Amino acid sequence: MTPRLVLASDSPARLATLRAAGIEPSVIVSGVDESRVAESDPTRLSLRLARMKAEAVAALPEAAGTLVLGCDSVLEFDGEVHGKPDTAEDAVARWKRMRGRVGVLHTGHCLIDVDSGREAAAVADTEVRFGEITDAEIAAYVATGEPLRVAGAFTIDGRGGPFVDGVNGDPGTVIGLSLPLLRRLLGQLGIAITDLWRR
């Protein structure tokens, strides 16, 4: 029987990444309030939030018999941790600091086999090189609303793509879900990622 994967996230990018890899997960949003979690280390923060999301969904009756995947991304830039911007003004100020420079996107992954209670978790890190974009481009991008919905105030798979010159590492980490890391976490639980493919 094909294991059923539940994505504990309402991220369209994470869902699209899994679907493109031949996996059709169920989606159950965790409802975890990320703003209430304080942690200065970006690696620990991304993993803690991913685990909180996975555990919240794994505890629900409808998650019985499934594998639950929680993910969370944060940007490390200038020694600071950045999630989603609070306001458009915050997003503009952040982009003015980031342009022409480099940050690191950390994405925590936590996979729980609900029936056995076993868990596998890890963080993927990818370096991001931001383009030298103009004030007008920043204003136009922030006006779309996209930067307000994502960690670090940017995407590489949406309107933000033209403003990122490159990444050093797995691009999926920046999109919000690393498929190679997911494969390794599944392997730790004795499951092949090919077992999750749509038949």
Account of the protein in words:
- The protein has helices at 12-20, 42-58, 88-98, 135-143, 171-175, 179-188; strands at residues 5-7, 26-27, 67-77, 80-82, 102-113, 119-130, 164-168.
- With 199 residues, it is α/β, with parallel strands linked by helices.
- Strands 1, 2, 3, 4, 5, 6 and 7 form a seven-stranded mixed sheet that branches.
Keywords for this structure?
about 200 residues, alpha/beta, 7-stranded mixed sheet
| N-to-C series of helices and strands | EHEHEEHEEHEHH
In the predicted model, the low-confidence regions spanning at least 5 consecutive residues are none
Radius of gyration: 17 Å
Beta-strand portion reads 15-25%
The amount of helix comes to 25-40%
What's the pLDDT, averaged over the residues?
94
By secondary-structure content and strand pairing, the structural class works out as alpha/beta
Based on Cα principal axes, name the global outline. elongated
Total helical segments: 6
Major sheet summary line: 7 strands, mixed
Cα distance spanning the termini: 11 Å
Tell me the total number of β-strands: 7
Produce the secondary structure layout:
Blueprint: E1 5-7, H1 12-20, E2 26-27, H2 42-58, E3 67-77, E4 80-82, H3 88-98, E5 102-113, E6 119-130, H4 135-143, E7 164-168, H5 171-175, H6 179-188
Parallel strand pairs: 1-2, 1-3
Antiparallel strand pairs: 3-4, 3-5, 5-6, 6-7
Helix pairs in contact: 3-4
